[in-house]
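Hello Y.,

Per our agreement to keep a running log of every chain we model this quarter, I'm adding this entry. I've kept the format consistent with earlier entries: sequence first, then predicted structure.
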Amino acid sequence: MTDLNQFNDSLKFPIKDAALLRRVFTHRSILNEPSHHATTRAESNERLEFLGDSVLSTVISTLLWVRFPESNEGELTSLRARLVNGVMLARIATKVGMDRYLLLGKGEAASGGRENITILSGALEALIGAVYIDSGFAHAFTFTEALFDGLIDETLSEPVHFDYKPRLQELAQAIYKTPPTYRLISETGPAHDRLFTVEVVVGHDSNDVLGKGTAKKKKEAEQLAAQGALLLIGGLKPTTPETAPTPSTPPTSPTSNDKND
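Predicted structure for the entry above:
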């Protein structure tokens, strides 16, 4: 637990329950390892991820509702989608160093699990859920807001995850005189937790794959594939670290528990 304690000490609201902290980083793949068979109460972070997703949605929805009083529901929903998606959550998880502490099965670790967007985003949601359970909603609100410092401003001024497909469409039409084509190349995992891998091709050579993406939803996988294509053909610059403004005061209770895609 030494490494996890080091991570915990870096948090503004350290998690007091050691078992809860460990569960945050426990991916289901490690539960099948022989070393874990004796731990009958071992549990993955999936239930915490479910809870953290709801807390995250409430916090971001509240921040946007306060920040943009003139925006309608559709505009707020679009802004929230730009902030709450697998790419953004994985980026934040990596920034705070969660990738170094993930408890993965040997196969998952060997296949790049510490860079897997789905695993990283799920771990971040699990961490938010754990802070909520351990310290209450007010602290979870402050904690989550700090994680997203600067990102609301960034979504208004920089290309973001949900802009990739339309930007690639425009660029492909201008360069190749033809729209991009997205192809589903694999589906893996159980029915309740599928992973879709999509590749995108542009131009007359259908074997020339410009980007590939894997996510829990086909549309998000397409966005990741489009991002890769834009990076390859020079239509997108790599993301740079954001600057952080001062967080505002949290409310005392949640306003919504909507789940975001």
